[in-house]
């Protein structure tokens, strides 16, 4: 499957591995691969357009004053290892047939192996009227540093009314973040003594609060308890700034006083402009969902939010993918068949307000189920239950992110999803259940290890 | 489970989607459309053929994608299949119900 010349088995010259994007996934890959690849034979270069690394999960907490802006920004170079070249520039296009990346001013960056890790970002301009007169006055996003900090000032002064949380498109990163925003908003206004002055609506193109049935049931009940009204199957067409309302394609209308939007999320424009297969119209790279190799080109690999694989776009996913991708890149450069396979594993903390959180864990084949994580039966985290421990886990994640995750240090969680300790609601627990997905060489976590480091994203 | 659609017995799932897209034909489409109170026009059929082609290629289907197909705008798609355009058109097209993967 691999060709001997393209993949580096020819030792006559130093080979070039290029990583596009120094966000979470690209930084993890640079750290892991620099350790694994012989520096004499492999030069590693990473390209990014921005020098600041944002801890994006922290954006959720900024509007409510739980985190300050300083908590979530660090220079990217703090996390990149020695022995990796860094280029600060915006990728314009990739020419995969020529094995070259085009940067600004027609600068060319040739590669032998390419890793695309350019993520996804909100595009408010995709929806007519979203980025109009009310933008950052009464309409905010919290998926960017600017949006989250602007919204923090707004909430501080807001006197109440109709708060509408609106999701523009059905694929977006961290699909639980808007739910968490709703829960935290309920807690925030309650603690401020003004919950009775605020109506909270959750407007989504999906058929319900979430997509998978068991988690949807759990989350819908929680939304109801917190007085958040869900309007499903609302596919946003435009925002009417004058009348202050959302209008859907089938002409439903939802008026708002304050709109918090999850704009259309898209991959980098160069993906659409490069010949990397049918990137649909959201610029996600067609990727083999098991090997993480680009569908069209054997020497191109894709990781994190930039892929089109059918699982959540989340930091935890990028982390689980990184383990698989390191192995497959090493296999590839040695001319071996790709041996590691990604199972779609995702897990997400869901902040539910008042110092509690819940947690979900799922993969391509299995929807989120109740149980314990990461150590079966012991926890300490509870899946699909609201607990304080889950909340502590979510907060601890910031430290783990900055100090362990980015720099590629080993984390004490298994890569493939475990079924042990999980139960379908109607079934009793089955202590003897084996974990069919577990691979050789993965040490299962013990409760002791996991107590000090609850590692989920 | 089995259903009788347009005079033939066809396997469908519990939501009424064909389990085998190759069992589809225009008469089946018309019969399912009638259940949804839709009378198929050429425009409907163009959309349905497009969906079947995309599905066969293994592409992920979304309302947005149909809107960029050059056949209809999203708005026209909603007008043709009021309510849930992608769900309804997929059922009429004899392909599986589109799933969201988050
Ligand atoms: C509000 C919010 C809350 C979240 N909460 C959680 C959570 O609780 N748990 C969780 O697991 N995940 C969470 N996430 C998701 C998580 O942050 C992302 O999934 C993760 O960052 C993905 O990593 P990535 O490397 O694929 O993309 P990113 O980290 O976004 O990195 C992409 C990089 O590519 C660069 N880039 C893009 N285009 C170009 C170009 N043309 N040229 C050069 N460089 C380019 C960007 O500058 C960026 O540095 C959250 C996200 C948000 C926004």
Please tell me about this protein's structure.
The complex is a heterodimer of chains A (457) and B (102). Helix content of chain A is 22%, strand content 23%. With 457 residues, chain A is α/β, with parallel strands linked by helices. Chain A has three domains: 15-119 and 268-333, FAD/NAD(P)-binding domain; 124-262, FAD/NAD(P)-binding domain (3-Layer(bba) Sandwich); 346-456, no CATH class. In chain A, the strands form eight sheets. Chain A has a five-stranded parallel sheet, covered by helices on one side. In chain A, strands 11-18-12-13-14 form a five-stranded parallel sheet. In chain A, α1 (24-36) runs parallel beside α6 (315-333). The longest helix of chain A has 19 residues, at 315-333. Chain A is globular and about 70 Å long. Chain A starts with 14 loop residues before the first strand and ends in a 5-residue tail after the last helix. By secondary structure, chain B is mainly alpha-helical. Chain B starts with a strand and ends in a 10-residue tail after the last helix. Chain B has one domain (2-93). Chain B has a two-stranded antiparallel sheet. Helix content of chain B is 44%, strand content 8%. The mean pLDDT of chain B is 90. In chain B, α1 packs across α5 (85-92). Classes of the chains: A alpha/beta (457), B mainly alpha (102).
